[in-house]
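Form 7-S
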Amino acid sequence: MRKVLIAALAAHAVAGAQSPSAHTTIARDSGMSDLRFPPTFQAIRLPTHGTVVNAVLYRAQGPELHAAIVFLHGFPGNERNLDLVHSLRRAGFHVLFFNYRGSWGSGGSFSFASARADIGAATAYLRQPETAKRLRIDTNRLYLVGHSMGGWLALAGAADDPAIRCTVALAPWNVGRVGALLSDPQLDSRRFVADFTRNTDSVSGPLRGSSADALIREVIAAKDAWDFSAFASRLVDRATLVVTSTRDEASPDFQRTGLDAAMQELGVRRYRSLSVDDDHAFSAHRLGIAKFVIAWLRSACER
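Output:
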């Protein structure tokens, strides 16, 4: 669980994966090698809790059953990581990407709790027998991958669903830790208030049906239950990867405070935590992140 440079670790992991497509899935198109079962792109109206949200399924090529990844974007989701989504699809994973309730034109109202509940709707959709058969999904291999708030959601979603075997949290944003800070009168909360206000603005904000005050009340009320360390005991039997960045604008304090210690105390062996010298979006290591995540999924989850 110690910090290491991702370039060296990615090279080691890819070499150890012993897969001929480990590099080509990043740097080269797969082409239409299977005309009966080609890679495809499909827009979906995903039902969740009385409304529908906008989703896209990136289907992998080939007639075999595929593992399926639910990819979770951040707050509000300006960085969508679709380059990583396409790389995962080229590597043989189906990927479902969706916008939470009340975000980016999806139905309903946004809240952190509703976004968390939407994960269950997404996995339920993938597990439907008709859907799984039509899309060639191996329902025993459903994984969660998320970035920023989506990293927090991936950990929370895995904690909620014991059938999720693998989880990847990239630069995860510890929403519970934010609630703890917002409840401390000695700390300056203006940047959180400004961020929540900007994203819920009725004219240009990508999140609707909520407000800065509502989001602040929500995270303060759930600060203990939503802290990373609260998820640890429910992840002991799962493979979990956390990748953080040293120059994160959101501050590394929000990425994995308490999680490493909790996992170590529990003696979790399938937990890997590492860091890269980069910003919140891993702007200088996009290919390295893709290579490493794919190699880790194959070695930790596919064997």
